[in-house]
Amino acid sequence: MAITSIAKNIATPKKRARGLIITRVSFVNAKTLLSAGAFYILFIALVVGFLYPSLSNLNLNVYLTSSAVSGLMGVHLKDASSFSAFLGLELYSSLYALIWGGIIAYMAGASLPATIENGTIDLALGRPISRTRYYLELWLSAILAAVFLSLTTALSVWLSTLFVHNANIDWGWLAIAELIELAFMFLASGIGMLFASFMNASRAAGGAAIGIIALAYLMNTLGSLSDKLNWMLKIEPIYYTQGIQALAIHSITGWYPWVLVVAGLVCGIVGVVIFNKRDLPTT
Q1: Is 210 exposed, middle or buried (0-12, 13-18, 19+ CB in 10 A)?
Q2: Distances in Å between the alpha carbon of 91 and those of 36, 99, 165, 248?
Q3: CA 71: distance to chain centroid?
């Protein structure tokens, strides 16, 4: 009896994704949050560009340099009539640290607990991936998100200058301002990862990280309004974020950004130590 063998087409198994797959997935998962942040940066910059020719004819300098506005914006400018100063108040003041730093803090804080909630952390750590690598890749995704928002801000500033005659933006100082704001967002990512290292609920961890940024903003505002509360300034991070000073008056304290970077590193390193020693909940 003749036996006929039938060749079967066996599908070739897909190759396992290599590289920074955890970083990529975390970044993509935050696309809605980052898109919203980028949209508002672009929207604010374009509105400033459109309205500045009209606003420059109004006497707003007294209002913009008042103590109340200085407290809310985290900086006291002697002259806020130039386009760079006006743009700095809108995009590089302490509000930038509060809003967009808060976005990065929430993203970092929610990233790790979210994988605990949906169970994907068990699948990832079941493969030859260490906890340290898993944590660092999630942290890297938050840092890349901060770079994305910084580049979006720089692009938005350039677009806004297209509507202003003689904008007189010093692009070298703009780059310095971006690096300073990036240093603050690096700190925000470290704060978020610190909370993520020991919390299991994504919203709670992200909210706690935002709470620290909001507390820093409140301390900065109160410290700027009253001499009796001036001590608050030196112990909160927004005081060391001189992005608007760089853009508007071309003057900064050189070691201030390093305070933010070192503080971010400390928070992130403490977080990875905690994450390596904690017991993960079973799903």
Answers
A1: buried
A2: 15, 10, 20, 11
A3: 22
The ranges assigned to domains in the chain are 21-277
Q: What is the C-alpha to C-alpha distance for residues 63 and 81, in angstroms, rounded to an integer?
A: 11
Between the CA atoms of 118, 113, 214 and 239, what dihedral angle is there, to the nearest 10 degrees? -130
**What is the Cα 166 distance to its own chain's centre?**
30
Tens digit of pLDDT for each residue in 179-206?
999 999 999 999 999 999 999 999 999 9
Cα(210)–Cα(188) distance, integer angstroms: 9
Helix extents (H) in the chain:
21-29, 31-55, 61-64, 67-73, 83-91, 94-118, 120-126, 131-161, 171-196, 202-225, 231-234, 243-248, 256-277
The pair of structure tokens assigned to 254 is: 């050189």
Model confidence pLDDT, tens digit, residues 89-108: 888 888 888 999 999 999 99
The answer to whether 71 and 94 have CB atoms below 8 angstroms apart is no
